[in-house]
Amino acid sequence: MKDSSPRILLVEDERHLAAGLKLNFEFEGFVVEIAGAAREAMSLLARAEPFQVMVLDVSLPDIDGFELCERIRRAGNYTPVIMLTARSSPQDRVAGLEAGADDYLTKPFELDELLARVRSQLRRRRWDSAVEPTPHTGDVLRFGEAVLDFARQEASCRGQPIKLTRLEFDLVRYFAEHAGRVIPREELLQEVWKLRNWPNTRTVDNFLMRLRRHFEADPVEPAHFLSVRGAGYKFVPEPDAPRSP
Questions:
Q1: Phi, psi of 54 (to 5 degrees)
Q2: How far apart are CA 233 and CA 92, in angstroms?
Q3: CATH 1.10.10.10 domain locations along the chain
Q4: Is the pLDDT of residue 153 over 70?
Q5: Separation of alpha carbons 31 and 25, rounded Å
Q6: pTM over 0.90
Q7: What is the rounded distance in angstroms from the CA atom of residue 6 to the CA atom of residue 80?
Q8: SS (H, E, C) 107-119
C-alpha cells in the first residue's frame, strides 16, 4: 500500500542541521528527502512522486536559494516553499517572497515554529484543493480578457496560460476583494507581504508592473491595475462601470 504521509523536500547543505530536521520531521509523520545543493534538489523534483512542501535554505554551495526558488517556479512547480536563512533583514524577506517563496523563517529558529509553518502550508494546500471553484464562489476572477482560478492557482489572459507566483495570486485576490477602493501602499505591504514599516516604495510598483504586463491590453495605459498619485492603487474589474472613489 502506498504511503500517504506528506512528503517534504529539505534543501540544506549543513549536514548536521539537515539530519536533525529530517529526524524530527519523520518523528512527526513526514517522509523526508534531503538535497545538499540546488542541482540535487532539481533532480529530486524531476521524479514522478511529488512533494507537498519544500523547506529551502538560502545559502547553498552552487546557487543561492532565491535563484533556486525562481527556477522551480519557472519550471511550473508551485509546491509551497518555506525559505530558511540567517539573513533577517526586510530586504531579504522581500527577495524570498518575490522569488516565489510562500513563507520565510530566519535562523536560529525554534523547531516547533518550523513544524507549525509546515503544517500551515499543508492545511492551505488542502483547503485550496478541497474548493470546487465556480464563477459564483469568489474563487474564479474574470476581468477584461483574464481568468484567474485561485483554488487551482491557474491564470490565463486572451486564452494563453500565465504563470503567477503565490504572492502574485495573493496580491490579485486582495485587489479583487477591495475592487474600486484606493488601497494605500502601506496596507498592501502589511496585508499581502506581511511587512510593517517597510521603507522601499518600489516593491508594490514592481509587482504592479508585472501584473500589467500579464493582463493589460496596454500596460502603459492600464485599465484595471491603476496607480492613484499620492494615495495608492486601485483595481477596476470593469473600467466602464461606475467606480467608487
A1: -120, 130
A2: 24
A3: 140-235
A4: yes
A5: 7
A6: no
A7: 12
A8: CCCCHHHHHHHHH
In the chain, the amino acid numbered 79 is T
Over residues 20-77, the pLDDT tens digits come to 999 999 999 999 999 999 999 999 998 868 899 999 999 999 999 999 998 888 887 8
Integer angstrom CA distances of residue 20 from 15, 26, 32, 58, 228: 8, 10, 12, 18, 50
| H or E element, residue 208 | helix 202-215
What phi and psi values does residue 124 have, to the nearest 5 degrees?
Answer: -60, -40
What residues contact 54, with CB distance under 8 A and at least 6 apart? 8, 9, 10, 11, 41, 72, 79, 80, 81, 82
Cα–Cα distances in angstroms (integers) from residue 121 to residues 8, 22, 78, 114, in the given order: 11, 18, 12, 11
| 96's grid cell | 524570498
Of 189, 182, 198, nearest in space to 231 by CA:
182
- CA gyration radius for the chain? 19
The domain defined by 140-235 folds into Arc Repressor Mutant, subunit A (1.10.10)
Distance of alpha carbon 94 from alpha carbon 89, whole angstroms: 9
Numbered ranges of CATH 3.40.50.2300 in the chain: 7-130
CATH number of this structure's domain 7-130: 3.40.50.2300
Q: 187-206: per-residue pLDDT in tens?
A: 998 888 777 766 666 778 88
* CA pair distance 67, 60, nearest whole angstrom: 10
